[in-house]
């Protein structure tokens, strides 16, 4: 059984494990104060979900906004990287304490996990996060997750909690992700246009769907926008996880989604295995391999990527690094772990397997990217 409508988010059989992401503009007001009444109502809804047998994970923004007010920083603490890191260090204490206090009112224990991009890009630490999440949920706790902004630099940042929520959902084997934002859902054009129409259901994030996105954050407080939400939907979809974009502005936002059916539901078109879902969700690629039409057709049939189909090699990467696989026009087709470093790939590209041993000076491997370590997007 799988989710087919928004009401299914409240069904423990279809959604036994739910990830809920809360944006900064919902959690913190313009003065940098917590929107306490709204948060109390949301926590009551999440406690109700647990009461009907669902496990809940919260991905919460708001640390920088809360900390910047306490430190008296301008620009919401985002004036510089140093400001953001300092504000996060102060705000994270307040944020965790707030969630813990509100859940405790319902007899629920909250737990804090801070993650960076590297934590989930690296396979061993990803598996550690998976184990920790599972144990916390089994123990009856609600994990409260945020990016570790106090140590994260631009190179190791998710950059927004939409994609973090999707990645956490993969790690936790969740059934669905609910992104609470300041918009009702995905519109076919900018919602400011009077002719804009909200889309109720999306099956697969296509280039046409991506073209509908507006990359900005409406509140100016958060770091995401519709583009990041669609990228999150792609990431979740690789693992067979449904994702919903809905407004968190009402006092009881989950009830509005479930009972009134207001939001956009993204249905996954397939379910990759755990390793391939992890590969597809990784964001840091070390290089790229451009392939010809014949290789593209072979990959679509489930084959590995072989050297004769490679037409260009870009970047400097080592064996085992993640590389992008692109067509002649530069479109991203997939991601995979390289069996050779960049120099060897350049020597092998376009050459038949009979030449490989002589080029390399040792027995060649079966593929440049093996199908078991490759995911198509």
Please give a structural write-up.
- By secondary structure, this protein is α/β, with parallel strands linked by helices.
- The protein folds into two domains: 6-278, Acetylglutamate kinase-like (Carbamate kinase, 3-Layer(aba) Sandwich), CATH 3.40.1160; 285-376, Archaeosine Trna-guanine Transglycosylase, Chain: A, domain 4 (Roll), CATH 2.30.130.
- Helices cover 37% and strands 18% of the residues.
- The protein is built from 14 helices and 13 strands.
- The strands form two sheets. Strands 3-4-2-1-5-7-8-6 form an eight-stranded mixed sheet, with helices on both faces. A five-stranded mixed sheet has the order 10-9-11-12-13, with helices on both faces.
- Strand 11 and strand 12 form a beta hairpin.
How are the SSEs ordered, and which strands pair?
Elements: E1 17-22, H1 24-27, H2 36-51, E2 55-60, H3 63-71, H4 81-104, E3 110-115, H5 117-121, H6 123-138, E4 142-147, H7 161-172, E5 176-181, E6 201-203, H8 207-210, H9 226-238, E7 242-247, H10 253-260, E8 264-267, H11 274-281, E9 287-291, H12 293-300, E10 310-315, E11 322-326, E12 332-337, H13 342-348, H14 356-360, E13 374-376
Parallel strand pairs: 1-2, 1-5, 2-4, 3-4, 5-7, 6-8, 9-11
Antiparallel strand pairs: 7-8, 9-10, 11-12, 12-13
Helix pairs in contact: 3-4, 7-9, 7-11, 9-11
What attributes does this structure have?
alpha/beta, Carbamate kinase, single chain, Archaeosine Trna-guanine Transglycosylase, Chain: A, domain 4
């Amino acid at each position: 059984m799988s989710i087919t409508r928004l009401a299914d988010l409240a069904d423990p059989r279809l959604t036994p494990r739910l990830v809920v992401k809360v944006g900064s503009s919902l959690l913190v007001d313009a003065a940098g104060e917590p929107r306490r009444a709204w948060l109390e109502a949301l926590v009551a809804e999440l406690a109700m979900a647990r009461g009907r047998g669902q496990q809940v994970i919260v991905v919460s923004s708001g640390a920088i906004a809360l900390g910047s007010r306490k430190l008296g920083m301008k620009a919401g603490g985002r004036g510089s990287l140093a400001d953001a890191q300092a504000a996060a260090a102060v705000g994270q204490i307040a944020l965790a304490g707030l969630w813990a206090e509100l859940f405790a009112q319902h007899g629920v224990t909250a737990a804090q996990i801070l993650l960076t991009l590297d934590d989930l890009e690296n396979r061993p630490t990803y598996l550690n996060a998976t184990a920790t999440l599972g144990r916390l949920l089994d123990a009856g706790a609600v994990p409260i997750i945020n990016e570790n902004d106090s140590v994260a630099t631009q190179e190791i940042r998710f950059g927004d909690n939409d994609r973090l929520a999707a990645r956490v959902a993969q790690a936790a084997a969740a059934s669905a992700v609910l992104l609470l934002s300041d918009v009702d859902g995905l519109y076919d054009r900018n919602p400011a246009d009077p002719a804009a129409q909200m889309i109720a259901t999306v099956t697969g994030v296509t280039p046409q769907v991506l073209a509908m996105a507006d990359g900005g954050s409406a509140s100016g407080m958060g770091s995401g926008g519709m583009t990041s939400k669609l990228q999150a939907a792609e990431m979740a979809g690789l693992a067979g996880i449904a994702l919903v974009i809905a407004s968190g502005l009402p006092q009881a936002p989950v009830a509005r989604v479930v009972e009134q059916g207001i939001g956009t539901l993204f249905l996954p078109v397939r379910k990759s295995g755990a390793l391939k879902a992890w590969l597809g969700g990784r964001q840091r690629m070390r290089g790229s391999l451009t392939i010809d039409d014949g290789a593209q057709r072979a990959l679509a049939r489930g084959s590995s990527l072989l050297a004769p189909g490679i037409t260009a090699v870009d970047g400097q990467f080592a064996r085992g690094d993640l590389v992008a696989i692109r067509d002649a026009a530069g479109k991203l087709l997939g991601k995979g772990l390289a069996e050779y470093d960049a120099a060897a790939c350049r020597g092998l590209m376009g050459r038949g397997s009979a030449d490989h041993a002589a080029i390399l000076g040792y027995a060649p491997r079966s593929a440049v990217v093996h199908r078991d370590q490759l995911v198509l997007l």
